[in-house]
Sequence to fold (611 residues):
Amino acid sequence: MELQDQIMDGDLQTLGLQSILKMLALSGKTGTLFVHSGPETISISLRKGQIVALREGEANQPDLLGMLCLINKLDPPRAQAVRESAQGNMQVALALLVERNWMSPDEMQRRLEFTVTQAISHALRWVDGRFSFHRQLITMESRMQALDVDSVLLEALRQADEWEEMGQTTLTRTTVARWLPEVSNDVRSLGLSQEHIEVLCLSNGELPLQAMSLVLMMPEARIAHVMTRLLELRLIEVVDTALEAELQQDLSNIIIMCQHTLAQQRQNLTADQHLLGLMKTLSQCINGLLIHHGKYAKALRGRGQLPIPDIVRYLERRFMQPLQLLSKQQYPILETANFANGQLDCSEILHLDKLVKGEKLEEFYWEAVLGLATFLRTVFATLLNDEVGNSHTGRQLNVVWKAFLTEIDQEIQQYQLYRANQNTQHARNRHNEAAFQVGPGVPMPGVTGMPQGQNNLPWSSETQRRSM
Amino acid sequence: MVEPTVLVVDDSPTVRKIVQMTLQREHIRVITAGDGLSALTSVADEMPAVILLDIQLPRMDGYHICQIIRKNLQFRTIPIIMLSGKDGLFDKMRGRLAGSTEYLTKPFDTAELIQTVKKHLVDWQARMPPQHEGMRTRLRRRG
Fold:
């Protein structure tokens, strides 16, 4: 914006936003008012002293369409159709909803008005900051009917007062909350009001308080009040988005590392080596996850640098029992695996080849692979539930995890196929031997010990190629 | 404004999903392909801003795909970041000869991935031929 267009400027301590807006409204000005306080900015477009558009900061606009789906006010396919056309612009999205008769023009106007009121209410609470008014009217895509400054200010001030009445609270308009994983009952049985249920439905670990306010058209202070109650009832928890981003990155790196190890072990040519490779991959993955959980477990958070024995004790307490249960009920071979310094020690299984040979060794390896794969699933499910629960991050990580498990399952299936093939072959050989003993004139069929593949290897050429 | 699109070509569903999740968090649109042929189709349909290309792929390897893209006048300027478990000098040289812009060795760190992709996204709009911008918008609208 050109400097010569600027009519006035100043700081908010000298002249507050309320006074500036009233003054501009009274004099029927046309132009754009820019206000900024720290990193936050707001620009209000006025035409003949009436508000015609408003834009807040550079932050991404909330996904109003997704939120309308969450509160059952819009079908997801319709939301998708509008999203494609609106390309992230909330104003355009609302206009499209009206155009397609999925929202009344009246509701659109109310939503736009509410957005303006919320933003001004927030800016009214800024103490330090600067403003400038420019003659030029910035064209913002707005479908809103012009708003009277006085009525907007009245409502905005009322909402700002509600925030003040909240007293000391840690909640802000950027606070993100999510359902606690333990909540599995029907929330209707808790006797919550409609607004509590709506806020609970939107607490998905992704939407900030401000976005909830916009979709429910409920003042931010009111949402904060409801959230406080839900926190007291232990139905939701506040999400630390920075921590979750870090946690997601750490888990992604572990999975990438394990996928790489899994791909590498595909180069193994014999069944024994393949199973051994799988065991190494699985135990590496389990230990990677244990190290991760030692850093991010909810019970260990917020206590500063913990002594390693405390972390080890926590991990063993959490995972020893499921391991023992698996070894007792399904996979006795896991009895040889122990926890040492918070890590799963599988060295006895990995060095079984020094004690056992041949088919027996393969059988032990096979049992260990199945046992470790089951334990790995348990470890991941436990840590994900503890660290992020059924949140957006949790669901995303689950998708990645399922993809990785599919790759492991494919490896396991490859071996199952090989074993089935081998068993059939053995049975056929036995049958032929018996037939040979009965009638020595019967010819021996061609013996192929392995399933069909390159160089008589148990793995398909495709599997081997992927291991490169 | 249209957000940049990154094409991830890898036969491992795990890698595809992780890259997708990681870049989407950075507000980068991600499309994926599991083999060379689908990769080439995606390049033609979507004109991605950056391509992350695994070397070992079913039917057609990454070097070959890279060469095909580099020979096409419309797509030759798209940065191609090779993804591979091989970190030997020979493989890197082969990647460069095929026309790759950069090389990421598996297992890669997600922070490194973001940094590398962002580096090549800086001037993506300037590189995009104007006629393709219109085509992509039309495709999006068609849904």
Notes: The first helix of chain A runs from residue 17 to 26. Chain A has 16 helices and eleven strands. The longest strand of chain A covers residues 40-47.
